[in-house]
Structure formats: C-alpha cells, structure tokens
Design a protein that fits this description.
The protein is an alpha+beta fold. It has 5 helices and 10 strands. It is elongated. The N and C termini lie far apart (44 Å).
Length: 178
C-alpha cells in the first residue's frame, strides 16, 4: 500500500481541479505530465505508482488527509472522473447507491416514477436500506415528482439524488452564466 510520503514524492495533486501530475521520471512518464487514465470498464481514473494501480479518488483522499479511506468514496456530482477534493465524501455502498442517475429504462423521465394504467397512473417509490418505500400513486407527473423528491430528501439527506448529475443540473438553473 502506498504511503502519503511516497505519493507526494511521485505525484502533485491539485485539490481544486482534481488531477495529478508526475514529479518523477520513469518509463513513459515525465515531470509535469498528467497522471492516470479513465478505466473503460469502471469509468474511474486509475493511476499506477511503483507497479501498483490505484483509483485516483482514493489517492486524492490519501494525499489530502494522510489516511487511506476506511470506506468507499462517493463523487458528489456523480462524475467518476471529477476527483476535486470537495467533490469526494466517505460513503457506504448504500449511500453511494442513493446518488445514482435516472436509469435509461425509465419511461416517465423522473427517477423513481413508473406509469401504470388506472385512475392515478403515476406510481412513485424508491429504496432505502433494502426496503421499498411506496410514496403513492398520483394523477399527474408533477404531483408524483414533487412527492418523491420531498420523500427522497427527507430519507436520503445529503445523498439524495433526483436523477441528474453535475453539468445536467447546471443546465437547468438560471444561475449558470456564459
């Protein structure tokens, strides 16, 4: 396992941008070059130091805190390649699962809402600690969306995610200026 001392000898980390650059020379690496690459299978940035490969977000945590993360780390904005320190937080597998995007199979366009025939066709539900929480059936999509988002915020707290991440949320706000 790499130590914080060895990590700081080999790499420089920018906590604002979330990238590493090499401080050492080696095979196919030069000081100042960016370190790591995105793994096609997982989507996480990986960096190999001294012949061992590490997730960059774990290295960022070690670099900044001096401790290897005890649990998993969650990317707040859902972007697995955004390793800015303020975008990382310790999380259990369960907490990470709450911060997922809307599934591609979703037909209503709102995370946790399915459409079923009947008087109140919009059915809202989500999972918490392995149990399904039924929010209810609603006559309109807007009512179902409002109810499920309020319930998710109440139950999931800071890990609540309504299906959008990072730039997707920015595009919906008027605060984003060019």
């Amino acid at each position: 396992m790499i130590t914080q001392k060895r990590l700081r000898e080999a790499l420089r980390y920018s906590p604002v941008v979330g990238v590493f650059e090499w401080r050492i020379t080696g095979r196919r690496i030069r000081p100042g070059f960016l370190a790591g690459g995105v793994c096609r299978r997982s989507g996480y940035v990986k960096i190999t130091v001294d012949g061992k490969t590490y997730p960059a977000h774990h290295l960022a945590w070690l670099y900044m805190t001096g401790q290897w993360p005890e649990h998993e780390l969650d990317h707040k904005d859902g972007d697995k390649s955004n390793n800015a320190f303020n975008n990382l937080r310790p999380a259990s597998d369960f907490q990470q699962s709450q911060n997922r995007r809307i599934p591609q199979s979703n037909r209503s366009g709102v995370k946790g809402i399915s459409v079923r025939p009947g008087k109140n066709p919009y059915y809202a539900r989500f999972e918490h600690e392995g149990k399904v929480i039924n929010v209810g059936r609603f006559p309109t999509l807007d009512e179902a969306k409002e109810a499920i988002e309020a319930a998710r915020e109440r139950v999931h707290g800071e890990f609540a995610n309504h299906g959008l991440h990072g730039y997707e949320q920015e595009e919906l706000t008027d605060d984003f200026a060019y």
